[in-house]
Design goal:
The chain has 2 domains: 243 residues, Type I PLP-dependent aspartate aminotransferase-like (Major domain) (Aspartate Aminotransferase, domain 2, 3-Layer(aba) Sandwich); 132 residues, Aspartate Aminotransferase, domain 1 (Alpha-Beta Complex), CATH 3.90.1150.10. The chain is 36% helix and 15% strand. It is built from 13 helices and 12 strands.
Length: 383
């Protein structure tokens, strides 16, 4: 009998020792450990937080690999640490990478401003249109990078086609699965090589941790770990403890957020003060069929365009009673933000508009408050 995903969230992973009968993984609040060579094991690697091989790391990384169906996994000090380590270990000077147009602002800045400084060429592609990808291939193309649900316009890439295209052309397929979460979509089961998460968001789920996860084929993850050690983007022991705690309620939180987000999207889609609602669970969404086929749920993220421009969007946010105006997502409390002032603020306006990030776009991260309470709060704010 195979345990369900919900059960594995609680019980996956192997304890490093008996740990005095502890039921919950303790916090190993020590920066270093006795040198194993001096203990008589000359082949053992020194244990050190920056090496991500302490008992906290080993237990959590084994648990994540099991949950995600990956050969290996590492935790990092942030989602961007996972992204940068994953890409920099896969690419080198002279290489080219295909990146989905309209990704998270931090990722967009990293690939368009920093990768070229290191001699890596970047081509932005429409991840929903596989017929356009081949035109961007060159002999030096090494990888393709997408998001399962794009941030913040909620497009769903042609994910199975990404895997097939990567296999056909010998590319490493990399996916940021933060928005979908492994509750709704498990990239390893579809053949992706590397899966990334900002664990700050849903995997932790309590808005009190900054962390990242990178999982996938073992040689790629080991290469990313080597890069991570050089960059110094390790996760501290307390962060490991918080992430392990958050994972245990992931399925409960995400399924509630799926249901509430769909109800909220449907209510807002017919509201006269809303110009557009971007949510893959709506039948009017351009990627609804693909999302229905690939995902077990449509996620807790949606975006809406408020009629009346930027001023109306700001007034709407201020009138909300329950959601907090804050630039993150995936927590138990609902959050709203205008990406033009947060995640995409450093991107030139013309580029933002091409990405669909308008001045009146409000991104909503649905929490686990009562569904009816949230829907009514949005309605009163629009009034």
């Amino acid at each position: 009998m195979t345990d369900s995903f919900d059960t594995r969230l609680i019980h996956a992973g192997t304890w490093p020792s008996d740990l005095e009968g502890a039921v919950v993984m303790p916090i190993f609040q020590t920066a270093m450990y006795r040198d194993p060579v001096s203990e008589g094991d000359g082949d053992a690697e020194p244990r050190y937080i920056r090496y991500s091989n302490t008992p906290s790391h080993s237990y959590l990384q084994g648990k994540l690999a099991e949950l995600l169906g990956a050969e290996d996994a590492i935790v990092t000090g942030s989602g961007m640490a996972a992204i940068s380590a994953g890409l920099l270990s896969t690419l080198e000077a002279g290489d080219r990478v295909l990146v989905q147009r309209g990704v998270y602002g931090g990722t967009h800045t990293f690939v368009t401003r920093h990768l070229p400084r290191w001699g890596i060429e970047v081509a932005l592609v429409d991840a929903t249109d596989p017929g356009t990808w081949a035109a961007e291939l060159t002999e030096t193309t090494r990888a393709i990078y997408v998001e399962s649900i794009s941030n913040p316009t909620m497009r769903v890439a042609a994910l199975d086609e990404v895997v097939a295209f990567a296999g056909q052309h010998g590319l490493v397929s990399v996916i940021d699965n933060t928005f979908a979460t492994p509750v709704n979509f498990r990239p390893m089961e579809h053949g992706f090589d590397l899966e990334l998460h900002s664990a700050t968001k849903y995997l932790n789920g309590h808005s009190d941790l900054v962390a990242g996860v990178l999982a996938g084929r073992k040689p790629l993850v080991r290469g990313a770990l080597e890069t991570l050690r050089g960059l110094g983007g390790s996760l501290d022991p307390n962060g490991c403890f918080l992430l392990d705690r958050g994972l245990k309620t992931l399925a409960l939180r995400v399924r509630q957020q799926n249901d509430t987000a769909l109800a909220l999207a449907r209510a807002l889609a017919v509201h006269p003060a809303i110009e557009a609602v971007h949510y893959p669970g709506l039948e009017t969404h351009p990627d609804h069929e693909r999302a229905t086929r690939l995902f077990e749920g449509y996620g807790g993220m949606l975006a809406l365009e408020v009629a009346g421009g930027a001023d109306a969007a700001k007034a709407f946010q201020a009138a909300l009673r329950l959601p907090v105006i804050a630039p993150s997502l995936g927590g138990v409390e609902s959050l709203v933000t205008r990406p033009v002032t947060t995640s995409h603020r450093t991107i030139p306006r013309e580029e933002r508009i091409q990405m669909g990030v308008t001045d009146n776009l409000v991104r909503v991260s649905v929490g686990i408050e009562g569904t009816d309470d949230l829907v009514e709060d949005f309605r009163q704010a629009l009034r």
